[in-house]
């Protein structure tokens, strides 16, 4: 199989076996996907991720033991920029918000058609965020930041009062790259300067001031 046609490797984390079986069948039936591992709780999910290094983690938020949001945090702490798509029955604005704040890339509700889930897997794998309109309306006006993990790093260093030059040195980047990141951050947060960006970042829960 050529590299270009490499399949999206999926780790499926859900404690409902029937649902998992259905999803495995659906995903494996797609030409560009394969489920490489399954887990029915958070700890097994971390273990499975370590072993298989999948491209996308499809994750239920409510499971016995470790909750989904905690799993997302642990995955990101241990493995960096992990691509997590939350697939859950429950979608209160708060829960969705916490999942995104922990680092989820997308959110699909279980009663949506299966095609939506498959589409979401492809979208988050391509680096996009996937928030269905019915979910974003529940976010009660909270804006989910579209910032990349690198942009979040840059913004948190801006918030610590570092200059572009210092940020560049800290992140091992060229100063010009930091400027590009800053321009993107201002654009995405729809603000005009660094101070407003910090305020917007704190307000949206993207960064915490120490």
From TrEMBL:
Domain of life: Bacteria
Domain annotation HTH luxR-type: ranges: 140-205
InterPro entries to which the protein is assigned, alphabetical: CheY-like_superfamily, NreC/VraR/RcsB-like_REC, Sig_transdc_resp-reg_C-effctor, Sig_transdc_resp-reg_receiver, Tscrpt_reg_LuxR_C, WalR-like
Residue ranges constituting the Response regulatory domain according to the UniProt record: 9-125
One GO MF term: DNA binding
Alphabetized PROSITE patterns for the sequence: HTH_LUXR_1, HTH_LUXR_2, RESPONSE_REGULATORY
Record GO biological process: phosphorelay signal transduction system; regulation of DNA-templated transcription
Keywords linked to the UniProt accession: DNA-binding, Phosphoprotein
Modified residues (4-aspartylphosphate): 60
Protein name: Response regulator transcription factor
Lineage: Bacteria, Pseudomonadati, Verrucomicrobiota, Opitutia, Opitutales
